[in-house]
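User: I've been trying to design a sequence by hand for this structure and keep getting stuck. Would you show me what you'd pick, starting by listing the structure so we're on the same page?

Assistant: Good idea, let's start from the same input. This is the structure you sent:
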């Protein structure tokens, strides 16, 4: 088994690959199962929030564990914070959509699910895809020394940012429109 050396510690690459594959698989499987079971939009948001929360908590494990399992505290701390932040945001959207469904203000559940999937895939492109490469690819000091295949990585991250912002804005407008339309119909 090959190993990576980071901060004087030998890190088994198999562990890193397993962690990364489990993260990507969980982020796709949790909302997909919720969608196939016919859950409302709030269930999709809560399923993703749970996955981001679990992996964020794992990344913020005590430094003795995280330094051995991953490539140092800088990547571990930063990615844990990102995952927990996204998990909290998804939980807030889940709570908003649950309240709307509970009080009959959810007028467009199908469009809400579509915007959820666009937002979720874009967020995966920004954070999860980047997290996988943070653990697998050692960072050179100069940008010219990066491997050629990382050009695709940069393109994915570059397009995922504006796409996630557009989906987030669309979701906020849709949720506000649903509330206002319900209030106007009274």
């Amino acid at each position: 088994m090959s190993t990576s050396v980071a901060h004087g510690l030998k890190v088994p690459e198999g562990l890193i690959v397993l962690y990364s594959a489990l993260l990507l698989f969980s982020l796709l499987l949790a909302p997909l199962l919720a969608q196939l079971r016919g859950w409302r939009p709030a269930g999709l948001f809560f399923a993703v929030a749970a996955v981001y929360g679990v992996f964020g908590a794992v990344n913020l494990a005590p430094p003795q564990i995280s330094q051995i399992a991953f490539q140092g505290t800088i990547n571990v701390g930063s990615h844990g914070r990102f995952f927990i932040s996204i998990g909290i945001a998804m939980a807030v959207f889940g709570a908003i959509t649950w309240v709307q469904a509970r009080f009959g203000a959810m007028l467009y559940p199908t469009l809400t699910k579509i915007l959820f999937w666009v937002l979720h895939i874009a967020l995966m492109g920004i954070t999860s895809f980047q997290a996988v490469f943070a653990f697998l690819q050692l960072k050179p000091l100069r940008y010219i020394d990066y491997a050629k295949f990382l050009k695709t990585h940069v393109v994915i991250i570059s397009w995922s940012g504006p796409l996630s912002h557009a989906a987030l804005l669309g979701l906020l407008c849709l949720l506000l429109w649903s509330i206002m339309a319900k209030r106007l119909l009274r």
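That's my pick for every position. To get oriented when you compare it with your attempt: The two ends are 66 Å apart (CA to CA). The chain has a mean pLDDT of 77.
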